[in-house]
Amino acid sequence: MATSGKKKYIYDFNEGSKELKNLLGGKGANLGEMTNLGLNIPPGFTITTEACLIYFKDPKAIMQKLEPLVIEHLKELEQKTGKKFGDKKNPLLVSVRSGAPMSMPGMMDTVLNLGLNDESVKGMAEQTGNPRFAYDSWRRFIQMFGDVCMGIGDENFERILDKYKRSISRTAQDTDLEVTDFQNVIADYKVLYEKEIGSPFPQDPYKQLFIAIEAVFKSWNNKRAKTYRRINNIPNFGTAVNIQTMVFGNKGWNSATGVAFTRDPSTGEDLKFGEYLTNAQGEDVVAGIRTPKKLDDMESEFPEIYKELKKTMVKLEQHYRDMQDIEFTIENGKLYLLQTRNGKRTPSAAVKIAVDMVKEGMITKEEAILSIDTFKISKLLFKSIDENAIIRVLATGINASPGAVSGIAIFDPDTAEHLANTEHQEIILVRPQTKPEDIHGLYASSGVLTQFGGKTSHAAVVARGIGKPAVVGAQDIEIDVENKEFRVGDTIIKEGEMITIDGTTGRVIEGKVALVEPEIKGEFSELLAMADKIKSLGVRANADTPTDAKKAIEFGAEGIGLCRTEHMFMAQDRLPVVQNMIMARTQEERQDALNKILPMQKGDFYEIFKIMEGKPVTIRLLDPPLHEFLPELSTVLLESQELKMTNSLSKSLLDISPLDDEIKKKNKVISLIRSLSEENPMMGLRGCRLGIVWPEINEMQVKAIFQAACELKLQGIEVFPEVMIPLVGMISELKLVKDQLIKVAKDTIDSYGVKLNYKFGTMIEIPRAALTADEIATEAEFFSFGTNDLTQMTFGFSRDDAEGKFLPIYLNKEILEHNPFETLDQKGVGKLMKMAIKDGRHTRPDLKCGICGEHGGEPTSIKFGHSIGLNYVSCSPFRIPVARLAAAQAAIEQKKKK
Fold this sequence. Notes:
alpha/beta; about 15% strand; about 900 residues; 8-stranded mixed β-sheet; about 45% helix; single chain
């Protein structure tokens, strides 16, 4: 034991508690908590996460400190169990398992049955009277140790095992093998081990143990663990190592192993859910090698244990005040608990569980809101299959993670990741069963389909955790990974062919199917209503069309924070008129084109104002460079060349030039495109600069805005237009443009004889505007932070170039912690925002401030916005529920800090 005054690196389970989660990892902390609750936990001890972090700095030094401590703790286990580690006749066997502070299912490594060797397996067989169990445990240990600790691929061992299973029958399971089969398997395993490693399999249990401890430490930085941490924003805590007395679910048909959830992890229903396998060890369930039985089957097979397990599940849920995921083993008719943790769940299940627990009085509304992972809640808006669609169901499996998706069938994770990243295709990863090393393919895919496994298999757990549809255990399909196809009866689906999976019902469907967009209803609406009562930060939508506006209202938007008028110009029926306006030679020609555009713009604003009745609508005046509305120069040059060739041919044959006028028009367009071409168009003639050079464009837009608003006002409909002047860097720019447009607004309002509440403001997207916000606020009645451009200009990054060329390298080398275009850079861009708000409100105390970049829907950025005093965030309609919850979480967290 670690003595007083020295760093304590090892804790017995009876010394642990859930409060020590960061030090002991989730598994170790909960094993300690359950031990102290008096539950039946196999004894053991935990090596701390601090030891893991030291290991990566100085592995030799920390192992020298740990080894005598581990041996001392093993002696205590020997006293508790009456067994001896390394003994030939009555060996103490242990499991060596990882356990991070935040759950990372399947991402790190585990070794079971450690302590066996050629001699102790004989003693174990004699002592238990069950040689089949002893030799099954020995072959399992060799396989796990060889794979996890020494890097011999698991598939190499599986090929040997499959050879002996096939010698019995094509469909034989592990349970069909006899003692002699296992002895032959073990002999072949040892030959494989020595061939791959260059030395015999280690027989010294202590050597086995210390190699396994180091392997678990190292697994913290394996590829799949690092990928999982990066995707899920998990800090570098390190992993604990749990060394626990083995109990055996593979001792015979009165033994079993399984996983139980206190509520259904897919739906959130208050139904005890789980799966188990008789005569098996834990990895058989999670690996999906055999399809497990349902928990309710235990009632007839193990009636007394079933009652005990259900009672324990209730006790643990009430103790932790959350849905629990419990691992258990039955050894010779006795129940042991190996782990409990807050269960991974689908977003829809998370919402239902949170709302139900509030109603049950188990948690408060604030706790319910904080329990929701806002990064995943948008997945609640899953698509479903159109009930009117004509479909052909190929097979039905287990509905492991809800939602429907169509995509091409891909049979290996590397190809899935490559196609998703390069071709941007919808991928459905099809595997016999998934393994932790498939994690990159699972994340890249839009859904996953497996032939084997249940709801607690790796594929199911990961898919639910990341909110992707999954169908597992679809045993009617036969997957041929080598030939990259699967067969259902006479139907063969080859790689690249389209299929659809429905993770809500478990159906596998041929081809692409019509899908229906989701709606907010039920418990989700109740949770959002709770959030709205708690949050202080407003949530608006980025909406450019009436359709967007309707969806925004449906999702609970309190207004529109960004209506981009250029998107209205891009419509196919309008683009020719816009191009005529750009190509006009005189102001009269340009005004004529603008007069044609005005009623179109007015109609757009009218519909949007009407839908958003009584809510503010912020409209950004034309922002992008004009060349974006013109065709590509290369396209026009090619068309011009073709016209010239056709014209030349006509002239030589018919002595006429019928296409002269067309060629002149093309030449005019070419000349215009070249004249508008800029070295750096994102910093060129756009935004307010365009309004200064061609003021009639802005004037037309403002006239359209206020005509629409006034007409609705005459109908008794309240309208609150907010006109946003983009890309302002100097107060003189803003004053000039605003003075021109205020006159247009007032003249329009006067012509209708109505009173209208409106504001003029600006988008803060140039660092100079943030630095001179006190001046800008003398004219601007609101600031809206355009964080996309503000990020570009603060970093000096061109987003398209950066994300395609060097940002991935920056993230991989940890030069940047996050992509600044996805998660707001609080130290740089955030500092500018904070300064601008403070200085702007010093000039204008009632200055309204919001954010309308993509960061407006990102939870971390939303919480930062709350902390610096924003009035609102604005995001795409589908991210509004996320923003509402994140805003409520920000308010709760801020209150806790006070």
